[in-house]
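Journal club prep — side note

Before the paper discussion, L.F. wants everyone to see what a predicted structure for a comparable chain looks like in token form. Sequence:
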Amino acid sequence: MSRIAYVNGRYVPHATAGVHVEDRGLQFSDGVYEVIAIAGGRPIDMTGHMERLARSLRELRIAMPMPARPLRMVMREVVRRNRVRNGIVYLQVNRGVYRRDHPFPPAAVPPSLVVTARSGLGPSAAVTEEGVRVVTVPDQRWARRDIKSVALLPNVLAKQAAREAGAYEAWQVDADGAVTEGTSTNAWIVTRDGTLVTRPLGDDILAGITRHTLIALARADGIPVEQRAFTVDEAKAAREAFTSSTTLLALPVVRIDDAVVANGAPGSITRRLRELYHIHMAGAGGEDWVGA
């Protein structure tokens, strides 16, 4: 079956889908995006993703391409046409098409909208059972990392550095030696006394939707949570470490650079959080496409 994409009002073959050469997403990375997990044909944590999309657009002063309900219907149709039961739906909103010039185009220029979907969700069972290695790199990104912008070149370079080092992910480190986040994930550790630690929200990290859900699930399960910065050295000495995202859930980290975390195997709290998240996906986390 040929894949189908939605581009600016039309459902088109994925292989030939494209935007205008002067689309500002292409020329300036002037746009935002969201990635939403699909499990059993239902979107996971859709409300949180839509709220974050709206916030990112507001911060960049880009108009919503259409009201929320029709946008949800477009995503549902793209998922349906691509026969995705377990996978992701991706949407990107750019400022629009206009002659190349740095200032915003006139308000009458409509934003561009692209939606795609594909099957496949998360790493293999073997990867999850064994855990992964991360490497640490200097954080070289812009100062507004809370906006889910498509300007991801520093993330791309850091991820490539990880792959060339034989690692799964790179954790980015600020000037104080504290971990900010991964290239496409949030970073976590578990202290020796069983406290879950992740960096607090601010301009320096993205407010991960999975991060938000994991904090709520942990607290409801009696796992203490602390939102604070942690150093690379603290992470290497932690009881457990993991990284999270829409597609990874809570993925165990068993090695940081060349240091083995604890006994080098996924820890019990990380395993418990994965279990809780799977329950969440099968229950309240799976939402109706068009909302309430």
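L.F.'s comment for the group: The two ends are 32 Å apart (CA to CA). Keep this in mind when we get to the figures.
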